[in-house]
Design the sequence.
């Protein structure tokens, strides 16, 4: 927005200080003059009761000189004080200007005791920390997404080049490989779209029972578990929460699928448990598998981190967004996600979501 230039805040404060000091001095001198007239008439009056002309001639110049001194002192002192008071705002403005020019690494780091300016500077620094972290995360995500999408496209291009250069090649095998690569690209694109949508908090919230969600997810993935000879079970009780049934179903489905895929080659187990604990609805997914290094846990919820040290089959390797999507869904539902390695191998995932307020029975999966 274009605005006409005006007086600076420092000049306005200076004029305010000087004006206030001048008015206060004038009032003080007026009070002194009234005091002399009322309580010390012998000092400034003649025996006949008339005001001495000599006293007026001496007092009036003194008053003018005092007011002039107060005005100059108020302007000078006000300018200095205003500069000191507005110095933090100048630093904040400089930081905001650098941020507007694209630099997110600058921080104010205002020193001194906590006051309004210090609080404003700290809030601004916190905002810059979050903004820089968010931008870095988005840049890293975009780079990883571009890399992941480029891989199936490059494979498709190679297969098409081979088919064009060798028409006698088995077309059935080529079509099957192209179908596999294309399916993977579609899965990745859908996962990226879901990750983007679920982070907006624009979904409709409704009562949801996590135990019903867990049963539907495990029923859907039961064929995959049987194929890998994994024992899949659901235990626990009702766990009422409020949120998007579709997003919560995707959350549990991703967790159970990961627990099946990242498991023992055969004979493993996956247990899904739901319960209500104090003020939280708890969902736990526990599986067997190879031991997981503690240092690997923080990276599992990052996009495109597949946990390469965990046992999996290539046909169900996924696109590396499973736990990233789970983490995002948990956050937009104001919950917490905890990953703990099992001493015997495998992983225990614990999700805590706010308990639904008491009311009508939930619709479950809507």
Sequence:
């Amino acid at each position: 927005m274009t605005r006409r230039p005006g007086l600076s805040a420092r000049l306005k404060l200076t004029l305010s200080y000087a004006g206030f000091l001048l008015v206060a001095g004038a009032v003080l001198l007026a009070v002194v003059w009234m005091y002399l007239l009322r309580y010390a008439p012998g000092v400034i009056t003649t025996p006949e009761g008339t005001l001495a002309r000599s006293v007026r001639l001496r007092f009036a110049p003194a008053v003018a000189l005092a007011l002039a001194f107060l005005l100059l002192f108020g302007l000078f002192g006000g300018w200095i004080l205003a500069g000191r008071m507005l110095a933090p705002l100048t630093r904040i403005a400089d930081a905001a200007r650098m941020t507007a020019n694209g630099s997110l690494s600058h921080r104010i780091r205002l020193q001194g005791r906590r006051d309004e300016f210090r609080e404003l500077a700290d809030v601004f620094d916190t905002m810059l920390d979050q903004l820089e972290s968010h931008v870095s995360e988005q840049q890293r995500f975009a780079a990883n997404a571009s890399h992941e999408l480029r891989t199936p496209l490059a494979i498709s291009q190679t297969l098409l080049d081979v088919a064009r250069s060798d028409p006698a090649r088995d077309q059935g095998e080529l079509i099957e490989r192209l179908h596999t690569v294309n399916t993977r690209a579609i899965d990745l694109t859908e996962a990226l779209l879901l990750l983007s949508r679920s982070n907006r908090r624009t979904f409709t919230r409704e009562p949801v029972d996590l135990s019903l969600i867990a049963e539907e997810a495990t029923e859907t993935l039961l064929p995959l578990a049987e194929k890998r000879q994994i024992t899949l079970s659901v235990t626990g009780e009702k766990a009422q929460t409020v949120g998007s049934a579709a997003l919560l179903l995707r959350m549990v489905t991703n967790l159970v699928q990961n627990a099946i895929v990242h498991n023992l080659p055969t004979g493993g187990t996956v247990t899904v448990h739901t319960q209500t604990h104090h003020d939280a609805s708890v969902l736990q997914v526990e599986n067997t598998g190879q031991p997981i290094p503690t240092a690997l846990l923080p990276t599992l919820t990052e996009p495109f981190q597949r946990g390469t040290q965990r046992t999996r089959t290539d046909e169900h390797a996924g696109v590396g967004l499973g736990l990233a999507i789970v983490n995002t869904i948990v956050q937009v539902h104001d919950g917490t996600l905890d990953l703990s390695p099992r001493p015997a191998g495998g992983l225990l995932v614990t999700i805590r979501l706010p308990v639904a307020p008491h009311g009508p029975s939930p619709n479950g999966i809507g």
Observations:
- Residues 9-103 form one domain.
- The CA atoms of residues 1 and 125 lie 25 Å apart.
